Amino acid sequence: MLEQNERIEDRVERSVLTGVRNRWWCIGPSAMVGNQPVGIKRLGVALVAWRDTGGKVNLIEDICPHRGAPLSMGRLEDGKLSCRYHGVEVSGEGVVTAVPAYPQCAYVGKKMVRSYPVVEHFQGLWAWFGEDEDTEPLPLVFPREYESADWTGFPISMTWQTNYQYMWDNVLDIMHPEYLHKDTQYFESGVANQVLVTPTDTGFTVRREISKGDNVELMEFIDTGAFWFRIGYNAPPECGPGGNWRVFPLATPIDEHTCQITIWRMRNVAGWEADLFRFMFNTKLEHFNWEIVQEDKDILEGMPPWPMQEKLYQHDVGLARLRRHVRDVVRKQLESRERMRTGAEA
């Protein structure tokens, strides 16, 4: 049985609050990690990231196994991290490689700090957060826009003072753009008969039926080893070549009150058209996009602490479907873990 005096639904909510395990999470853009160790917090865990001599990003818990000092305050020595307090050296695998003050120390050669697998791709960093260090990572399957040479784009990243679930809900709330963003960017308005959720092989899409045409092409949730959100909206010719925009807004929990937002803006262009898109975005379009992001940030940071009291209606079917999916994932993880535990005790 599960822990006494604690319902499984309470455990599910507690697990979701700071991030689902056994998934890849975007920890930020590639530019976040340079030639010095950087301390970050993701999914409630204090971490330190750095690049070794070959440029590979390492990620381990930000705690020295000797006295608990933050390794993010340390120095890099030949691609390994040296604690500033007493010089204990730790590799990217979390193995103590040297104790300069006491070379014969029994800790040398032992793995003493948890490490996290990292994938770097399309100017972004993804880390695997398993239930424990021995959990084998799932394959990380990127959306097609991240894999095709026919698409170009770039990320921005920022910290928001709100639970990441508010951002997730916002992405699949297809009715909010025409109200929240009506003063900054044009979105087709009209009375929506209903919001439609359509299952896909990897998640679902959200669309709306309105009395006029709709320039919000789609909102989509994808679960392929990581949680992805794809927004497509129609762009007028004045926005340059490439047709419709694709936006991938990814929110990763820092803790239960704060999250890291990393957003990719993409268009189906390559070669000189990709250069033109970047030029037009930087000189003409960027301030419109930042205004939209700021409006989302302001409204979500003003929300009460998660969870809030709500009264949902039909237009909230997309976010309701998302919440159910995520909680089903966690519930299955907890039940699987409980079966393994009771089987081991039998």
From TrEMBL:
An example Pfam family from this entry, by short name, is VanA_C
The record's listing under InterPro entries reads:
Cholesterol_7-desaturase, Rieske_2Fe-2S, Rieske_2Fe-2S_sf, VanA_C_cat
Question: Which controlled-vocabulary keywords does the entry list?
Answer: 2Fe-2S, Iron, Iron-sulfur, Metal-binding, Oxidoreductase
Quote the Gene3D superfamilies the UniProt record gives. Answer: Naphthalene 1,2-dioxygenase Alpha Subunit, Chain A, domain 1 (3.90.380.10), Rieske [2Fe-2S] iron-sulphur domain (2.102.10.10)
Molecular function terms, GO-annotated: 2 iron, 2 sulfur cluster binding; metal ion binding; oxidoreductase activity
Residue ranges of the Rieske domain?
Answer: 24-127
Q: Any keyword ATP-binding?
A: no
PROSITE patterns on file:
RIESKE (PS51296)
The highest taxon in the source lineage is Bacteria
Matching entries from PANTHER family are given as: 3-KETOSTEROID-9-ALPHA-MONOOXYGENASE, OXYGENASE COMPONENT, IRON-SULFUR DOMAIN CONTAINING PROTEIN
The protein depicted here goes by the name Rieske domain-containing protein
